[in-house]
Amino acid sequence: MDLYEYQAKDLFAAHGVPVLPGSVAESAEQARVVAEGIGGPVVVKAQVKTGGRGKAGGVRLAADAVEAEAKAAAILGMDIKGHRVRRVLVAAASEIAEEYYFSFLLDRANRTFLAMASAEGGVEIEQLAVERPEALARVPVDPLRGVDGDRAREIVRRARFPEAVVEEAAGVVVRLWETFVAEDATLVEVNPLVRDPEDRVIALDGKVTVDDNAAFRQPGHAGLVDERAEDPLEARAKAKDLNYVKLEGQVGIIGNGAGLVMSTLDVVAYAGQRYGGVAPANFLDIGGGASAEVMAAGLDVVLHDPDVRSVFVNVFGGITACDAVATGIVEALKILGDDTATHTAGAESAAATRGARSRPEASRARLRAANLPEAPSVHQDTARRRDRRPRAGGPQSKPLVVRLDGNNVEQGRRILAEAAHPLVTVVDTMDNAADKAAELAAAGA
């Protein structure tokens, strides 16, 4: 979970990291009151979980409380990279002699922690890493040894901090490490870490990401959640215990296993280049033991994304066999109100027979457990299907491309073929399925 700057600074202060006095405000009037309490010049900063605030006009200097109120009024309600500003941080302004950069993060590639530091702060660190990599020190941190004063001094010296601030900066680094460990963080970043004219080293900004998997031993982190700022689709997925991340593309992605889903993102992005830059719309891993109701829940989330124009379901049957996944797809589409299979009398009879077998009370209980509404009865479903068609633009009108492989793959493909759903296309290979999903997304633009 990413924290707001004011939340990060609260954690810093709790662990002894020097920060300037300030408080959060949700209205211009509150900002004026905070500024009056601080006295003198203040900085009014938009609180959003994204970068680029300064360039967007979300960080402004105010000479006094009256000006702070005006600046806050201008910032509140702004849209910064899709994030609406609902609160501002009003903090004391500071004269800056020098700016540095420092962070601790989880180095997944090397299975350890990493300290990153530079004597050139206040800039885009990603840009610095590309243009002048020698200016950015990367120092592995042994989690068993940690960071004491000696190690902290070594890190800041390798980053070429001025010798005059090494001791002061090393003390801040030790306390940042304490914050990183005590709060179960995966990232603690200060940019800029500044030296003021009195040679004090202060965290002028702060970014912290805490590990949601540590929530069981961090009860205080529950109070850091901002439900108003949470993406509604991610909140919907979280309520269903789905591993979902919203992206900016047009092809919804559902797969079982993080590795397979990541590969699916790559092949869709590659295929999308042939169709005007179509890209993945999300990451959704339904897990290695995904059942039919979990697949139904996943489709319910992805199909309700207004940016999604097609969906690619990529499943390798293992713990959960392909026939169970196929059943989940069929049931989910019925639940979403779009059972528009071929309507010959023979097909209706077969569908009714299959429905009687596949939707007993136990199946209904599973679907209720997935927080989805029940499908109509077999007789209701058969009677209504003649007049039901997908609603244009709604979740029921988005085409699905399904690729199944592995355990019970033939049975799974047969279930989908018998359902004969007009919006479902079954493709044998991942590359061809990605190409088809990208093509359908481009056609739906």
Automatic annotation (TrEMBL):
NCBIfam families named among the record's database cross-references: PRK00696.1
Keywords: ATP-binding, Ligase, Magnesium, Metal-binding, Nucleotide-binding, Tricarboxylic acid cycle
Catalytic activity: GTP + succinate + CoA = succinyl-CoA + GDP + phosphate; succinate + ATP + CoA = succinyl-CoA + ADP + phosphate
E.C. number: 6.2.1.5
Family (UniProt): Belongs to the succinate/malate CoA ligase beta subunit family.
Taxonomic source organism: Amycolatopsis cihanbeyliensis
SUPFAM superfamilies named in the record: Glutathione synthetase ATP-binding domain-like, Succinyl-CoA synthetase domains
GO terms of biological process kind: succinyl-CoA metabolic process; tricarboxylic acid cycle
Subunit architecture: Heterotetramer of two alpha and two beta subunits.
GO CC annotation: cytosol; succinate-CoA ligase complex
InterPro entries attached to this UniProt entry: ATP-grasp (IPR011761), ATP-grasp_succ-CoA_synth-type (IPR013650), ATP_grasp_subdomain_1 (IPR013815), SUCC_ACL_C (IPR005811), Succ_CoA_ligase-like_bsu (IPR005809), Succinyl-CoA_synth-like (IPR016102)
The protein's name in its UniProt record: Succinate--CoA ligase [ADP-forming] subunit beta
Binding site for ATP: 45, 52-54, 94, 99
Pfam family, one: Ligase_CoA
Ligand binding (substrate): 256, 318-320
Cofactor dependency: Mg(2+)
